[in-house]
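Escalation from tier 1.

The customer reports that the assembly of two entities below gives different structure tokens on two consecutive runs. Tier 1 could not reproduce it. I'm attaching the input and our single run for tier 2 to review.
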Amino acid sequence: MNQRINSPLRASQAQAERPRSTGAVTARTSGGDRLRSWLGHHREMWHESWVRFFASPMSSGMTALVIAIALALPAALQLGLTNFQRAVAGWDGQPQISVFLHKGAKQEAVSAWTDKLRADPLVAEVTYISPEQALAEFQQASGLGDALVGMDSNPLPAVLLVRPSGSDSAALEALAERLRESALTDSVVLDMAWVQRLAQLTELGRRMSLGLAFLLALGVLLVVVNSIRLHIENRREEILVVKLVGGTDAFVRRPFLYTGLVYGLVGGLIAWLLVSVGVWLLAGPVSGLAGSYGSGFELDGPGVTYLLGLAGGAALLGLTGAWLAVARHISAIQPR
Amino acid sequence: MIQFDNVNKRYESGQDALGRVSLEIERAEMVFLTGHSGAGKSTLLKLLTAIERPTRGNVIVGGQNLNRLRNSQIPYYRRNLGIVFQNHQLLFDRSVFDNVALPLSVSGCSKREVGRRVRAALDKVGLLHKENQNPIVLSGGEQQRVGIARAVVNKPAVLVADEPTGNLDPKLSEEIMRLFRDFNAVGTTVLIASHDLELIARMRQRVLTLQQGQLIYDGYPSREPAY
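Tier 1 run:
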């Protein structure tokens, strides 16, 4: 920025001007002054880009709205995904093997086997559920208690819930096979498929939202590039004059970069508003739905960090778009 | 101060705009550049203002060979020049003051300094009382004077003017020329391209005449410049 040429012209200028009474004319602006003025120009451009934004509220507003909508979509998807993951967080990904025992299995034999299993390095935890416990749990959870009361004997078998220490599927299959071979076992259910499906669904959603975010970010970039290109065209005269009076490319670029930044920032803020309104509209039904499943789950709205992330990311996109536009178009505008 | 050394300029279109032009202008000289349109006046000024680069030969200003100027250095070079355009190139989206202040804000002058220098320049061209107006409401002569104020606000060593009186009547032209003479009197090197031969003759200054890209006259015309 503060690159100077040590031009002999300046020196000769100094000599030429020495006899003049207005001696300060050769004054090169000092380093501190330059920095102050550089910062001042930044401040001025920041201010000016806001003034320009609101000077043509329709067109600027439209651009910002396009950016906002493009950003709100992936942002909402992302937020939904986060909420979904939070909702299912209770169901950890640990697989569990349910061993249903024969009805006639002797209590002592079951205890001995349980102890042996607990000593197995492949097994982390074994929980014994007696037929009575199973019945009580079933009555509570299913609401079919009354139907069972009418039965003269407990139809449920005893169950061993085995939690394996690892989650390697080959080892799990081997363990399940061994459990199945025991004489006490009626059947074995490897309770893992749905956990995997859930994880894969979540992953699928995550990737889709990433892909969508990428495409829409690209769209935002193009929108900004195009608006900045129009701004540059509109201020062509000014750019020419500034270049002729010794304005550096950085000086010429600055107002456009700030304009891009402002577009992004406003777009990000509106996107946040859109998502917030969406969450507010969905919060009632979601908590009702969660309530019907006996869960106290509440939708997490977009908080302050979310706002900062969205606005910051959008501002960065705006700035990048502006960079692309000025890099292409400003060097093409040269005095002729 | 300004030296052209065997300068050739051929445009990409193949048109030869200047051929083997050599000239030298001393510091604090005032020189008129004249010739028919298409004679190469504008090309010469463009080489001087680093808008174009010579095809062959050297342009040296204040000891600085413009051929060796990197593109990124051109803005800093131009800050030593004051340029006045025929169509004055004022910006109508800002006040007279802001127009004149442009070269100063570009070079990073402090606010206080900008105010002082802009007012001094406007005072010099007699438009101090119009600093807050938009240049679009000014007359042609006044607009040109704003353009001159902008060119000199940086106190450049060299002042270059391209047909500064092109659209003005003789009386206004005379005023503008008097301004240039004043700047010249305090040590600024002034180069004015003009085809107003009568006016040039009255100024009694050195005249350079171009014809078809060749320098055909360099001297002080007694009455009328040789053509």
